[in-house]
Model the fold of this input.
Amino acid sequence: MHRISPSKMVAWLTVALIGPVLSVIGKSGWGGALLAVGLCSVIALCRFQFDNEKLPRWLCVLEFVWLAVFLAGAAPQSGYCWSDASANMIIPIVLIALAAVSSQKGSVPSARVGATLLWLVFPVLGIVAVAGATDVDLSLVRRELTTPDGMLLGLLLIPCMGLLMPQNKPKKAFWAIPVIGAVAVIMAILLDSVMGFSVAQEAGDTFYEFSKGVNLFGVAERFEALVACVLTAEWFVLFSLILSTSHHLWERISTKGIAWSVWLCSAMSVLLMCNLHIPGQLLGVGCLIFWGFLPLLTQGLGVAKKVIKKQK
Done:
């Protein structure tokens, strides 16, 4: 089996998460982002200490179902950077379908695409952020600590699901969380200081709204179309990462139907997305339970049982 190198895994996680994190960061602010990064880093650090190759089947089933629920809750956000797209499901459904095609043979092809897009994503987002930093007013930054947005918590815990993929030195993927978290905190301060915290908090896609007022050092304007394309590409990479995880979870559940597991997860997500509105706070609590506390409790009990057997 082909395995993903540590550098490619970190690059894939970074591309998959940085755009979506910047899109929702306005709801949390720098304080909420800081709390989310700290909490998710501690949970991930604990999870990365255990052997994730031997998760019980019932837990894999629960995590497979929760991946579909999280994808259904996160997917509508991908349309907020396009006019009127938030009122329908066309863009999220198309992105999920494309991501399913990319992920149906596992994580290695998707990782290759995601890591390659790193060289497109970072220059564009970096230029827009630097150009927008010329009009900063720190008095507009919110002073109080705020509760982290549930979507942000879920996004920062996704590297824990990367442990289920075939990769060399999987523990190195942990560093994606503090790196992305540091960028998120800095960008939260920048977005507040340029847009004002009330505008940033109410924006459907914070970074896209920020890009509308950016000009390239007084020379070029109207970057939002380019930013919308880059953010959409990043949402596609995130969906590919989620569906690739569902593929490898199904390998642990059953030896049958592996080729169709990605499409099953996609279909469940689309059905939920079209019929239910899943609040962000519910997504956050669910991710903490299914990707954090429940696996840690299960793995901790397993280690405790082994210790007790050895003592006997």
Residues 132 and 213 are 8 Å apart (CA to CA). The mean pLDDT is 81.
